[in-house]
Amino acid sequence: MSDPEPLQLSDELLAIARKTTLIAARKRCPKSVDPEDVWQSVCLDLIRTPPEYDPSRKASKVTLLKLICSRAVSKYAAKAKRDASRFKQVQVPERESLSDIQPSESIDMFQYIESDETRRLCQLMMDCDCNMSEVARRMGISEGSVRSRLKLLAPRLKAAGFKPFKKE
Questions:
Q1: What CATH topology corresponds to 98-159?
Q2: What is the rounded (10 degree) CA torsion for 155, 161, 164, 166?
Q3: Cβ-contact 161, 108 below 8 angstroms
Q4: Which pairs with CB-CB distance under 8 Å and at least 24 residues apart come from 24-33?
Q5: Domains in the chain: boundaries
Q6: Taking the CA atoms of the chain, what radius of gyration do you get in angstroms?
Q7: What is the pLDDT of residues 30-81, one digit of tens each?
Q8: Which of 42, 54, 93, 98 has its CA 20 to 30 A from that of 123?
């Protein structure tokens, strides 16, 4: 009796494994899963830990490879279904751009802001459509400073009945 040895994956065996995997993935995996992604995962597993082949058991290398690929696809499909149930896609409503705020509304908002620097920050937030990186660049301060200033401003604007700047 000979000892099992790692299966040498030739181009022919890899082609058979790919075909088996793609067929099984199309049948068993959810529609959101790309069969090529499944093949890539199975191929990496085959390369990382090659299957043990024992010639004394009279099994064909092709049969062994097909069985391993089918099992790997089943595991991938089960994981994909678990993940899909965990992470449902949410419909995000379109938001109005802050640049759509009417000038009269902007003027009303600015009366609740004490410093000129904070008024400039708010005006830039509207002009840059809430892009904090751009606002920070134009003001010559860090993004963290922009965030902290907006966090300090938010309670005052909420108390006055305004919604704080928030990129959704």
A1: Arc Repressor Mutant, subunit A (1.10.10)
A2: 140
A3: no
A4: 24/69, 24/70, 24/73, 24/74, 25/73, 25/76, 25/77, 28/73, 28/74, 28/77, 29/73, 29/76, 29/77, 29/80, 30/77, 30/80, 30/81, 30/84, 32/80, 32/84, 33/76, 33/77, 33/80
A5: 5-86, 98-159
A6: 29
A7: 888 889 999 999 888 888 888 888 878 777 888 888 888 888 998 888 888 8
A8: 93
